[in-house]
Specification:
Distance between the termini: 32 Å
Largest sheet: 10 strands, mixed
Strand content: 25-35%
Number of domains: 2
Number of helices: 8
Helix content: 25-40%
CATH architecture of the largest domain: 2-Layer Sandwich
Shape: globular
Order of helices and strands: EHEEHEEEHEEEHEEHEEEHHH
CATH class of the largest domain: Alpha Beta
Number of strands: 14
Length: 242
């Protein structure tokens, strides 16, 4: 028996999202667990990606826009020589090319070229809507339409492992950045194509993955224990936002 009525729950819950789940899947699982509807998230993760997902419970949904705007940190892996239609490992292979005899130093130089302010065109396989229809639904029909470029900033893009055709990386960027598009464009720059093979969000603003619990562990907890993990709204956002 739950000792605290679910409707009283309010705060920010940090979840380590498993691969294969959409961000909305996590919302649905928490709604069932907590028996409440007012639950959202701040910052979508693709199904392929894992890691930090900021969940908003109860009245904490009112700080959604603030938390979405936080800068993000990621770790991941890029595979060179294979291009997919979605720019990640979940897509269909469109092209394979030989990987040039790339050196670690050359990879680092190419990655540094992505640093700074820039405009990025969102991929067709995205949840952005055109006329109320998500672009990924149009992409599945073989359609491609013009997309409005978005302003982003990449403050770090570092090589963490080098074992061709695989490149491990760490990335710090602003909200709305499509990491798989960066992976795709890196492959184009290197002349062999590439796709994002794995991605893990490790941070969002002051929140770190180390503070989160895996979704399956959260689902096993009694509701009062989940309540103890909720970060109060006043602690999650500056006073001026609350």
């Amino acid at each position: 028996m739950n000792l605290m009525p679910p409707k009283e729950l309010e705060g920010v819950l940090l979840v380590d999202k498993p691969t294969g789940f959409t961000s909305h899947d996590v919302v649905a699982r928490l709604r069932r667990k907590l028996q409440m509807r007012r639950i959202g998230h701040a910052g979508t993760l693709d199904p392929l990606a894992t890691g930090l997902l900021i969940m908003l419970v109860g009245k904490a949904t009112k700080i959604s826009q603030y938390l979405i705007s936080l800068d993000k940190s990621y770790e991941g892996e890029i595979v060179l020589g294979v291009v997919t239609d979605s720019q990640d490992a979940d897509g269909e292979v469109m092209e394979t090319r030989p990987v040039p005899p790339l050196t670690e130093a050359e990879a680092r130089v190419a990655m540094r070229s992505f640093l700074g302010d820039q405009y990025q065109t969102p991929p067709m396989h995205s949840a952005i809507k055109k006329g109320g229809v998500p672009l990924y639904k149009l992409a599945r029909k073989g359609e491609e339409i013009e997309r409005e470029p978005r302003f982003i900033r990449v403050s770090a893009f570092e090589l963490t492992s080098f074992a061709l055709p695989r490149l491990g990386f760490r990335l710090d960027c602003t909200k709305g950045t499509y990491v798989r598009t960066i992976a795709h464009e890196l492959g184009q720059k290197l002349g062999c194509g590439a796709h994002l093979a794995a991605l893990r969000r490790t941070g969002s603003g002051k929140f770190a993955l180390a503070q989160a619990l895996p979704l399956e562990e959260i689902e096993k907890l009694p509701v009062p224990d989940i309540a103890k993990r909720l970060i109060p709204v006043h602690a999650a956002a500056p006073r001026l936002v609350v």
